Amino acid sequence: MGGESADRPVPDAAARTPARPIVTVVVGGGIAGLVAAWVRAQAGDHVLVLEASEQVGGTVRGATLDLADGSTVTVDVGAESFATRTPAVADLARDLGLAVVQPDPLGAWAYAAERAHDDPDAPLRPVAVPLPRTATLGIPTSPWSRDVRRALGTWGALRAWWDLGMPRTPVPPPDRPWSLADWVRERLGETVLDRLVAPVAGGVHSADPATLDPRTVAPQLVAAYEKTGSLLRAASQVAAAPGRGKDKPGSPVAGVEGGMHRIVDELVDAIEAAGGAVRTGVRVDALVRNGDGDGWVVRAGDEQVAAARVVAATPRRVATDLLGDLLPPATAHPRHGSDVQLVTLVLDAPALDAAPRGTGVLVAPSADVRAKGLTHATAKWPWLRAALPVHRHVVRLSYGRAGDPGHTRVPDVDEALADASRLLGVTLDRAAVVGHLGTHWPDALAPAVSFDRERAEAAQAAAPGLTVVGGWVAGTGLAAVVGHARAAVTPPAIA
Q1: Under a CB-based contact definition with an 8 Å cutoff, are residues 362 and 109 in contact?
Q2: Considering the domain 132-247 in this protein, what is its CATH number?
Q3: DSSP, res 356
Q4: Where are the membrane-spanning stretches (predicted)?
């Protein structure tokens, strides 16, 4: 009942080295590096991708689980969907010949812990509520809609409605601390914060809203608030923006039929079909500019590869080492990312046929479970549900929050089952488990910050033929990473 990687095997490195001169070397075979390599290969460059690990794709990865009955199932063990706030990922998938699919419109739930408002000394109690259909970071757009009243209750909805009549409070200056929790509590009340914003912000940003600055995580919301003077009106304005769906609770997302990992397979195939090569297990030691400033030498162990262009598609710490003096000194020290652990459970559980928590659950940091979120994958994705026998379900739990580096151990099956039972409201025992797999993603929640983008842009300006891509420059999420990587290596961004 274990699992193995579903990534395509990469042949011997020497056999994959291109025979003709390299035009573009991409250092890093995560999704940003593969997208950049594919774009340049389609433009006619002869491309070489060098990845230090044994697998490409970064956090877009699949795995095949061997089940107790002798069958198998392949699932995503990294990103399983993408935000549709921009068309970047959907366009990429379609360009690769993949089918973009929508999740089941069941919607997701929120799970939190709260005290009775008339008794501050009362113990915390768990609360599970369906997420409103139209919201921004959990902030509802219409406090009197049926789904919002169901989530907040009459008093909670009334308190949120007061926002519309409250005087405008100014956004603090940049040098003053400000948290999403304080903002929501002031404008909309504790119930909105506890039941909606804390679970959604915790799921989207893997952090307590008390640690999130709205100017960083929701600049569009802040800009809309400064125009309208109301947090409800601002949330409504952002939710109505192009690219935002209005028919599904939570953040609008989509997926790929067969799993997100298929994007990686197709990118590698397309790069190779265009004459490029993808090599794994190759750690680049140095990027050296030619003496005349025209072209590069990429050093990896005893190997040297000459290239006209170099794309640095590595994590921040690796890029800092490789680019050296090309990167201006950091004006601040970015915090390191926290680890993320995933536990995938394959269950024979008729009680889950009714999808008791819709497509999944987002969990507030205050809740009585360690998991920060649960995805009921077979409820969320019809293609996966159709591929499995009746009563068989795939449930994935996610662990690890930003700023909390202490939890690096992947929970065992019993811990994950206990969390799943609480979150789903259904008792699940060990006998229901027909397959499971734990996955550890180190440093997965490293944030992108504005001064990093400025440093990368300065390095590119100082070194013709250099492009820097990746989450530390582009921002969080596939939509940001894919869109940035594609634009960064497309003319006129690259000559």
Answers
A1: yes
A2: 1.10.3110.10
A3: T
A4: none
